[in-house]
Amino acid sequence: MTTADIEGLDQLERAVLDEDTSLATALRQFLLIAGHAHHEELRVWALKQLAGYENDEELPRFREVAAPLEVTLEPSVPGQRRVEDTRQISPHQVPQAVRDRGLGEYAPIRYGVREIEALIAMGWPVEISLPGAAEYMEQVTNELGNGSTVLSLHWRVPVTTLRQVLDHIRTRLTQFVAEVRAVMPAGQRHPSRAQIGSAARQTFSFTGGDNGTTTINIASGGGTATVNEPLPASPQPWWHRSSVIWSATAALATIAGVIATVAVAK
């Protein structure tokens, strides 16, 4: 092996092809390869998938997923036990001031892959609260409550959608390995920095935030996934324009032994 050659491609290939291997493990191996190759864009991409995205960071397109809006109400009926009622709503039903912020039926998935894997293991859809919901909850209650209190306004993200996000990342890593193999001549065991750079150019588009890639659309019923559907033109989502608070809740408050919390705060 010459000093220009970079080890680790064999381990990365095994990791991305083994569905039982955590995607976080494959990403860490990919990160090491990127570091040895002194490839900053690959390092940044890998770290974002591992650690997740901050609230004020622009997301790649594949992490903005189609998800229905839901509202949870607490009916106030004198003399009766209060029972929460969750129902799906259209973006056109929320106050105009909220729609003007760019609200739509696309939810931001900012978690690192370990958190996504843990949420998938729970087996329930994830409820992601809209950024800054506390600022306008009273207005939403006045317009949607109809005598009830609005407890939550959130996106409902099916488990199948979270799996598709991880599958997109695993496919990208697999494509990267394939591109490296394609430029390595027969008999070469480890790639060079130049070959890593060539594979990176073929696999990743870093200009524009990786937005020219696969997107995921899930039917409102949560049963059908389609791939490579372009997002319709819409105002820039308001979680891109300012640093806002958003959180995710699922059926359980904690994921024992996996992650301490499913909430992301500013």
Order of helices and strands: HHHEEEHEHEHEHHEEE
- The rounded distance between the terminal residues' Cα atoms is 46 Å
Please bin the fraction of helical residues: 25-40%
- Domain tally: 2
What strand order characterises the main sheet?
3-2-6-5-9
Low-pLDDT sequence parts: 207-266
Describe the largest sheet: 5 strands, antiparallel
Number of helices: 8
In short:
This protein has helices at residues 9-17, 23-36, 40-51, 96-99, 113-122, 133-144, 159-183, 193-203; strands spanning 64-66, 69-74, 85-89, 106-108, 126-129, 149-157, 216-218, 225-227, 247-249. It is of the alpha+beta class and 266 residues long. It folds into 2 domains: 9-56 and 163-210, no CATH class; 61-158 and 214-249, no CATH class.
Structure commentary:
It is a single chain. This protein is α+β, with helices and mostly antiparallel strands. It has two domains: 9-56 and 163-210, no CATH class; 61-158 and 214-249, no CATH class. It contains eight helices and nine strands. It has helices spanning 9-17, 23-36, 40-51, 96-99, 113-122, 133-144, 159-183, 193-203; strands at residues 64-66, 69-74, 85-89, 106-108, 126-129, 149-157, 216-218, 225-227, 247-249. Strands 3-2-6-5-9 form a five-stranded antiparallel beta sheet. The chain starts with 8 loop residues before the first helix and ends in a 17-residue tail after the last strand.
